[in-house]
Predict the 3D structure of the following.
Amino acid sequence: MHLVKTMKGKMLLTLISGFIISIIYFSLPFLVIEATEEPKTFLTHSGAVIQTSGDVLDPLYVASTVEFDPMEYLREFNYGRVSQLPDGTTLREFTIIAEDDKVMEVSPGVFYNVWTFNGTVPGPTIRATEGDLVRINFINNGAKSHTMHFHGIHPAEMDGVFEPVGPGGGQFTYEFTAGPVGVHPYHCHVMPLEEHIVHGLYGVYIVDPKEGRPAADEMVMVLNGLDTDFDTENNFYAANTIPFYYQHHPIQINLNELIRVYVVNMVEFDPINNLHLHGTLYHYYPTGTDTVPSFYTDMITLSQTERGIMEFKYDYPGKYLFHAHKVEFSEKGWIGMFLVKENPDQKSQSGIEYGT
Amino acid sequence: MELSNKPSKGKLIASGIIPFIFLIIMVAYIFGPGSELLDLGVPLPEISMEKINFVDSEILVTVRNTGPIPVEIVMADVNDRIQPAAIEPDRFLERYETAVVRIPFDWNEAQPYLIGLTVGDGTRFEKEIEAAALALEPNFELVGFFAIIGIYVGIIPIMIGLLWLPFIKKIGKNKYHFFLALTAGLLLFLGIDSVEEALKVSEESLAGSFNGALLVATVIVLSFLGLYYSAEKLVKRAESSRMTKPVAIALMIAIGIGLHNFGEGLAIGAAVGLGSIAFSTFLIVGFALHNTTEGIAIAAPMSRGKTMIGKLAGLGMIAGAPAIFGAWVGGFVYSPFAAVVFLSIGAGAIFQVIITILRWIREEGDKNLSSAAVASGFAVGMLIMYLTSIFV
């Protein structure tokens, strides 16, 4: 009897003390947390320097750790394997491989399943001259059907809509004459279309006029968004996929040199996007199909797949922002910077070589 | 007896332990290395923002991993706009681990804010703050402020309620039963109020993995049983000591109400601390009116003994003073888990007190709980509480 009684007492004591300890643990977490040493610092958007004993949460990529390098993509144009047909037409052959199983660190710490053309989002920039024959050997190594649908002029069966290319190595050859002159998007056109686009199956297709373009420092900017939690709202926006990248790694350009930007808006979910440039204005050629600019402005509005060519020069050296003036987008990553440098030997950037 | 027990004792222990061993083997098999037997479905990350403090040019978010898998916190935002931030001690959170996210941000007083945190798979969690207010630093001025609120809300109204004692003393048996039943009605309302509050807090601020509603139920039952057990002891001892039964019952009621008022103080302190209410004099008046009725609850059983001013005042303090401690705890070290637990303890205590009162009425009054006096008293008690609650 006595034994039972003391056991009961002990059990009660254990129960009560366990209860109290768990309350303390859950209610006063700071007692359990131990601070670590070696403080780190980071900059706020307003420039204040903050010190922390913990980790910094800042979507700030270092050039060496980024999986997809926006700086490399910016000025990379693919002219294909070039050969001459018997009738003198230039043939440009490209091999594009679609995949849909890649998980990429799109922003530091944020992992997202990207669907890619040739391993990147956006896919490679395909460039040809008006009248060239473009041949694309498309291979689908993904787990779903995919296609390539080009904006432009081509036969119906080359439209990449009604001929889904099966998963696991399906093939299709797209062939068409390059045209019209301008800047166009290409993207997968398999249903559900929105899903295939927002996961990253798109890229830029540039058609140059036969007479060529004036020499310039050329670059491609695809304005895109990432819906990492699948709630049909973008969590990130960017120029060329990686949020805030060009803000922390400014694009270096030369004073007084002509800059030509091929800009394509691929943002889904939000009806519009826009582009505002600081410190100068640009001549804007909507869709790039005309040789005369339509606007001289520092702000254009772009709807889905709306695109164009911007040409501008800087008169003063220094740092200049470019960003969405829909500021929500810029605060979620669609913001960048030009670093204009005084360069005594001009034209250090490459002019245009029509791919060989 | 001890000796003869020995051989069977071994068996007894073994038979008690064997099921546990099988349980351990099963768990080890399911979770053990190489076992993918139950590796179905995708576990989703979940985090809870338990506390958000606005300090000088910074927003401090206490975050807990309340999901089934470890998470990495990778990004912070304010109003869905990404902000550079820091997380201490580090961004990797094991299950139930907490960290503090520091978001440097020039926030504006009284403005609503939406705080968001994103984890490694891109899932974003958010929590809304109705009105930003500077986090309270425990200083003497504030300690005093909370004490004054506690006195206004807890002690003074109860003392006023106790002043009805002479009145209740003079009335007849039937009317007395009416007042006892009224007390039970008041308390039932308070109990339901506590449960509702506990469920509300658990729903709003407690992660799903705490099983909020079941936590409330469990704590209520534990608190009820604990007090039920000790009340029996107290009443039994009262019979053999100089404490009379009415005093013992009044003491139980005072303890029950005290626990409830601690929860109430916690809620008030937390509300002030989190900036979710502006503490107006109107609100204090509402609470005061509401709590005056608690004094009647203590006075009613006491009216059948000698009038003991000292004891009465003591009981009033037991019932009212916890509001002060509650306000301190709520204002300075608020945690939703503690709030839920204390509110539930209060509810359990009150339900126990109701049982005690009803039993007493039955014993006193002809084994009858369905007399007009009792029924109407109960109903009026609920009604009074409801009407005074409108002011809060």
